[in-house]
UniProtKB/TrEMBL annotation:
SUPFAM superfamilies: Ribosomal protein L4. It holds the Pfam family Ribosomal_L4. It comes from Acetatifactor muris. Forms part of the polypeptide exit tunnel. Coiled coil: none annotated. This is Large ribosomal subunit protein uL4. Belongs to the universal ribosomal protein uL4 family. Residues 45-85 are annotated as: Disordered. Part of the 50S ribosomal subunit.
Protein backbone atom coordinates (compact mmCIF):
# COMPACT_ATOMS: atom_id res chain seq x y z
CA UNK A 1 0.00 0.00 0.00
CA UNK A 2 1.11 3.54 -0.75
CA UNK A 3 1.59 5.62 2.37
CA UNK A 4 1.13 9.40 2.16
CA UNK A 5 1.37 12.16 4.72
CA UNK A 6 -1.71 13.68 6.33
CA UNK A 7 -1.76 17.45 6.87
CA UNK A 8 -3.95 19.75 8.91
CA UNK A 9 -5.43 23.05 7.72
CA UNK A 10 -2.29 24.89 8.86
CA UNK A 11 -0.19 22.82 6.47
CA UNK A 12 1.56 20.84 9.20
CA UNK A 13 2.06 17.09 8.91
CA UNK A 14 0.01 15.29 11.56
CA UNK A 15 0.40 11.66 10.49
CA UNK A 16 0.27 9.24 7.58
CA UNK A 17 -2.40 7.19 5.86
CA UNK A 18 -2.21 3.97 3.86
CA UNK A 19 -4.05 4.15 0.55
CA UNK A 20 -5.80 1.10 -0.87
CA UNK A 21 -3.86 -0.27 -3.84
CA UNK A 22 -7.14 -1.35 -5.45
CA UNK A 23 -7.89 2.34 -6.03
CA UNK A 24 -4.64 4.29 -5.65
CA UNK A 25 -2.14 1.66 -6.84
CA UNK A 26 -3.47 0.20 -10.07
CA UNK A 27 -1.76 -0.08 -13.43
CA UNK A 28 -2.35 3.18 -15.32
CA UNK A 29 -4.36 2.63 -18.51
CA UNK A 30 -3.83 5.69 -20.71
CA UNK A 31 -6.26 4.50 -23.37
CA UNK A 32 -9.18 4.32 -20.93
CA UNK A 33 -8.20 7.71 -19.47
CA UNK A 34 -8.29 9.20 -22.97
CA UNK A 35 -11.70 7.65 -23.64
CA UNK A 36 -13.08 9.03 -20.38
CA UNK A 37 -11.82 12.55 -21.14
CA UNK A 38 -13.23 12.50 -24.68
CA UNK A 39 -16.58 11.30 -23.34
CA UNK A 40 -16.66 14.00 -20.65
CA UNK A 41 -15.94 16.78 -23.15
CA UNK A 42 -18.41 15.38 -25.68
CA UNK A 43 -21.16 15.15 -23.07
CA UNK A 44 -20.56 18.79 -22.11
CA UNK A 45 -21.20 20.01 -25.65
CA UNK A 46 -24.58 21.71 -26.06
CA UNK A 47 -25.04 20.70 -29.67
CA UNK A 48 -27.32 23.68 -30.40
CA UNK A 49 -25.37 24.95 -33.43
CA UNK A 50 -27.64 25.65 -36.42
CA UNK A 51 -27.38 27.21 -39.87
CA UNK A 52 -29.92 27.34 -42.69
CA UNK A 53 -29.70 25.32 -45.85
CA UNK A 54 -30.89 26.63 -49.22
CA UNK A 55 -34.28 25.09 -48.46
CA UNK A 56 -34.66 27.17 -45.30
CA UNK A 57 -33.46 30.67 -46.22
CA UNK A 58 -36.10 33.13 -47.35
CA UNK A 59 -36.44 34.49 -50.87
CA UNK A 60 -35.07 33.20 -54.11
CA UNK A 61 -38.34 31.88 -55.44
CA UNK A 62 -37.88 33.47 -58.87
CA UNK A 63 -35.30 32.52 -61.44
CA UNK A 64 -32.95 35.56 -61.57
CA UNK A 65 -32.62 35.54 -65.39
CA UNK A 66 -33.58 33.39 -68.32
CA UNK A 67 -31.73 30.17 -68.93
CA UNK A 68 -29.95 31.13 -72.16
CA UNK A 69 -28.72 34.14 -74.02
CA UNK A 70 -27.54 36.44 -71.24
CA UNK A 71 -23.86 35.46 -71.12
CA UNK A 72 -24.22 34.59 -67.45
CA UNK A 73 -24.02 31.13 -66.01
CA UNK A 74 -27.41 29.54 -65.56
CA UNK A 75 -28.98 30.18 -62.15
CA UNK A 76 -32.19 28.86 -60.69
CA UNK A 77 -32.30 30.85 -57.42
CA UNK A 78 -30.56 33.74 -55.68
CA UNK A 79 -30.53 31.65 -52.50
CA UNK A 80 -28.21 28.95 -53.83
CA UNK A 81 -25.02 28.48 -51.76
CA UNK A 82 -22.78 30.44 -54.17
CA UNK A 83 -24.90 33.59 -53.78
CA UNK A 84 -24.58 36.18 -51.04
CA UNK A 85 -27.42 35.51 -48.64
CA UNK A 86 -27.75 31.96 -49.88
CA UNK A 87 -28.04 28.81 -47.82
CA UNK A 88 -25.12 26.87 -46.34
CA UNK A 89 -24.00 23.62 -47.93
CA UNK A 90 -24.28 20.73 -45.44
CA UNK A 91 -25.35 23.20 -42.75
CA UNK A 92 -24.87 22.09 -39.11
CA UNK A 93 -28.06 21.13 -37.30
CA UNK A 94 -28.73 20.56 -33.58
CA UNK A 95 -27.43 17.16 -32.50
CA UNK A 96 -26.46 15.19 -29.41
CA UNK A 97 -22.71 14.58 -29.17
CA UNK A 98 -22.85 12.47 -26.01
CA UNK A 99 -21.92 8.82 -25.91
CA UNK A 100 -21.47 6.17 -23.24
CA UNK A 101 -18.56 4.08 -22.10
CA UNK A 102 -18.83 0.98 -19.94
CA UNK A 103 -19.03 1.47 -16.20
CA UNK A 104 -16.00 -0.77 -15.60
CA UNK A 105 -13.97 1.26 -18.11
CA UNK A 106 -14.96 4.53 -16.42
CA UNK A 107 -14.03 3.18 -12.99
CA UNK A 108 -10.70 1.88 -14.30
CA UNK A 109 -9.94 5.30 -15.83
CA UNK A 110 -10.72 7.05 -12.54
CA UNK A 111 -8.45 4.68 -10.62
CA UNK A 112 -5.73 5.28 -13.21
CA UNK A 113 -5.72 9.07 -12.76
CA UNK A 114 -5.85 8.78 -8.95
CA UNK A 115 -2.88 6.40 -9.12
CA UNK A 116 -0.96 8.78 -11.39
CA UNK A 117 -1.50 11.63 -8.90
CA UNK A 118 -0.15 9.49 -6.08
CA UNK A 119 2.84 8.38 -8.14
CA UNK A 120 3.59 11.97 -9.15
CA UNK A 121 3.37 13.26 -5.59
CA UNK A 122 0.44 15.48 -6.51
CA UNK A 123 -2.07 14.11 -4.01
CA UNK A 124 -2.49 15.68 -0.55
CA UNK A 125 -4.59 14.24 2.28
CA UNK A 126 -6.16 16.60 4.83
CA UNK A 127 -7.23 15.37 8.25
CA UNK A 128 -10.34 17.58 7.93
CA UNK A 129 -11.59 20.69 6.17
CA UNK A 130 -13.97 22.66 8.34
CA UNK A 131 -14.79 26.33 7.83
CA UNK A 132 -16.83 28.36 10.31
CA UNK A 133 -18.60 30.25 7.57
CA UNK A 134 -18.57 31.21 3.92
CA UNK A 135 -15.31 33.13 3.65
CA UNK A 136 -13.09 32.92 0.59
CA UNK A 137 -10.16 34.43 2.49
CA UNK A 138 -10.18 31.53 4.95
CA UNK A 139 -10.26 28.95 2.16
CA UNK A 140 -7.39 30.71 0.35
CA UNK A 141 -5.38 30.60 3.58
CA UNK A 142 -5.79 26.81 3.74
CA UNK A 143 -4.71 26.44 0.09
CA UNK A 144 -1.68 28.67 0.72
CA UNK A 145 -0.72 26.62 3.78
CA UNK A 146 -0.80 23.48 1.60
CA UNK A 147 1.00 25.29 -1.27
CA UNK A 148 -1.82 24.43 -3.67
CA UNK A 149 -2.30 26.71 -6.67
CA UNK A 150 -4.32 24.86 -9.29
CA UNK A 151 -6.16 22.17 -7.39
CA UNK A 152 -9.20 20.00 -6.94
CA UNK A 153 -10.52 19.73 -3.39
CA UNK A 154 -12.52 16.56 -2.77
CA UNK A 155 -14.70 16.35 0.34
CA UNK A 156 -16.73 13.41 1.61
CA UNK A 157 -20.10 15.16 1.34
CA UNK A 158 -21.34 18.47 0.07
CA UNK A 159 -20.31 21.21 2.52
CA UNK A 160 -21.88 24.58 1.75
CA UNK A 161 -19.22 26.57 3.58
CA UNK A 162 -16.39 24.92 1.64
CA UNK A 163 -18.09 24.95 -1.76
CA UNK A 164 -19.26 28.55 -1.53
CA UNK A 165 -15.92 29.77 -0.17
CA UNK A 166 -14.07 28.23 -3.11
CA UNK A 167 -16.55 29.23 -5.80
CA UNK A 168 -14.90 32.54 -6.73
CA UNK A 169 -11.42 31.06 -7.09
CA UNK A 170 -10.58 30.51 -10.78
CA UNK A 171 -7.92 27.84 -10.21
CA UNK A 172 -9.59 25.73 -7.51
CA UNK A 173 -12.56 23.40 -7.92
CA UNK A 174 -14.43 21.39 -5.31
CA UNK A 175 -16.23 18.08 -5.66
CA UNK A 176 -17.95 15.51 -3.47
CA UNK A 177 -16.29 12.11 -3.28
CA UNK A 178 -19.14 10.45 -5.16
CA UNK A 179 -19.06 13.04 -7.98
CA UNK A 180 -15.38 13.12 -9.00
CA UNK A 181 -14.49 12.60 -12.64
CA UNK A 182 -11.40 11.86 -14.68
CA UNK A 183 -11.30 15.26 -16.44
CA UNK A 184 -11.32 17.36 -13.26
CA UNK A 185 -8.62 15.22 -11.64
CA UNK A 186 -6.39 15.42 -14.72
CA UNK A 187 -7.00 19.15 -15.07
CA UNK A 188 -5.88 19.84 -11.51
CA UNK A 189 -2.20 20.16 -10.72
CA UNK A 190 -2.82 18.96 -7.15
CA UNK A 191 -5.66 16.86 -5.76
CA UNK A 192 -6.57 17.51 -2.12
CA UNK A 193 -8.59 14.78 -0.38
CA UNK A 194 -9.95 14.84 3.13
CA UNK A 195 -9.51 11.62 5.12
CA UNK A 196 -13.28 11.08 5.01
CA UNK A 197 -13.20 11.50 1.23
CA UNK A 198 -10.42 8.90 0.92
CA UNK A 199 -12.53 6.45 2.95
CA UNK A 200 -15.60 7.08 0.83
CA UNK A 201 -13.70 6.73 -2.47
CA UNK A 202 -12.19 3.45 -1.32
CA UNK A 203 -15.62 2.17 -0.26
CA UNK A 204 -17.11 2.99 -3.67
CA UNK A 205 -14.28 2.02 -6.03
CA UNK A 206 -12.26 -0.66 -4.21
Amino acid sequence: MASVSVYNMEGKEVGTIDLNDAVFGVEVNEHLVHMAVVQHLANMRQGTQKAKTRAEVSGGGRKPWRQKGTGHARQGSTRAPQWKGGGVVFAPVPRDYSFKINRKEKRAALKSVLTSKVQGGNLIVLDELKLDGIKTKNFVAVMNNLKVQKGLVVIAENDTNVVMSARNLPDVNTAAANAINVYDILNAKTVVLTKDAVTKIEEVYA
